[in-house]
What we know:
Layout: H1 10-13, E1 22-25, H2 29-40, E2 49-52, H3 57-67, E3 70-71, E4 83-86, H4 90-100, E5 107-111, H5 118-124, E6 129-135, E7 145-151, H6 157-167, E8 171-175, H7 181-189, H8 191-208, H9 213-234, H10 238-244, H11 251-261, H12 264-286
Parallel strand pairs: 1-2, 1-4, 2-3, 4-5, 5-6, 7-8
Antiparallel strand pairs: 6-7
Helix pairs in contact: 7-12, 8-9
Bound molecules: NADP nicotinamide-adenine-dinucleotide phosphate.
NADP nicotinamide-adenine-dinucleotide phosphate binds at residues 25-31, 52-56, 87-90, 92, 95-96, 99, 112-114, 136, 138.
Amino acid sequence: MVEGVDGSTLGEGAAQGRQPSLFVLGAGAMAEAFIRGLVRRQAIESSQIRVKNRSRRDVLDQLQSEYGITPAESLAEVADAAVVVLAVKPADTVLALEQLRPYLNGQLLLSFAAGIPIALLDQASGGKAAVVRTMPNLPVAVESGVTAVAFHAKVSSHQRLLARFLLEQVGAVVEMDEAMMDATTAFSGSGPGFVCYFLEAMEEAAEQLGFDEATARALLLHTVAGTARVLLDWKLSPEVLRRRVTSVGGTTHAGVQVFEQSGLKQAVAEALSAAASRSAEMGRIYRGGGSA
Ligand SMILES: NC(=O)c1ccc[n+]([C@@H]2O[C@H](COP(=O)([O-])OP(=O)(O)OC[C@H]3O[C@@H](n4cnc5c(N)ncnc54)[C@H](OP(=O)(O)O)[C@@H]3O)[C@@H](O)[C@H]2O)c1
């Protein structure tokens, strides 16, 4: 068992003296990634994770056989949970919360729904839960993600630690003002897609340089993972590391000059700005305040 936030295991240390358990509503890709991280890291006794979806019982059975979770028979089981995880699509979020409302009584509520603001989550839950809005990204599926979190003012300090502890099982956690959440959706949410786009270009260029696909892929992925590792371990900015590996007249310098001339930074800035605008726009649609 991994140590919990207060030195106990989560199994012993859940909030407010409730039977320690997690109720996960939604059993899709995000729910599975989160459950996998919790179970693999032994952060919580797997049978204490109750999971409910809308209709796909086969999915719950598969999660049970793979991770040892307990399929929930009824939403009423929420009443005994210390933590409720909302892992349904943004468009289903308000309805799902309204269905949960009769069973909420102060639980920590972790929402994964992109674009759904804390105020709406709080309203839909009748003010009966301590709401945390989160924005995880794809690498949480391999416990190497990053999750941005914003807390409602009424989330207690114990619940904040508990939220961080749970989310840290699938990667890093970064706390921020809710106002930055749409930008985060565009930045770290869409980030894996943007990085892949650049890697795609690197692979196409590798072919022109004469590499076979497998060799190019191995060189590329280890270069990317290794560079990220160096930046994290040595606590360097990308600019500092780039300058360190760039000697005037050398190979990196020759390549970077072409990036500079072709306006790569400007294209990246425009892409991120477009993604952030789209994220804000989609948030307005989910909240019922705008059209696509
Ligand atoms: N996937 C990602 O990489 C990612 C990244 C960041 C954030 N997110 C967020 O995570 C959330 C979940 O995304 P996902 O990709 O996991 O979705 P998904 O695979 O489509 O799964 C959605 C799940 O919600 C269930 N559901 C819908 N309405 C429900 C209701 N009223 N009561 C109970 N269960 C209900 C569905 O059940 P049935 O199958 O039975 O209909 C399904 O299990 C979204 O809000 C998304 O914005 C996802």
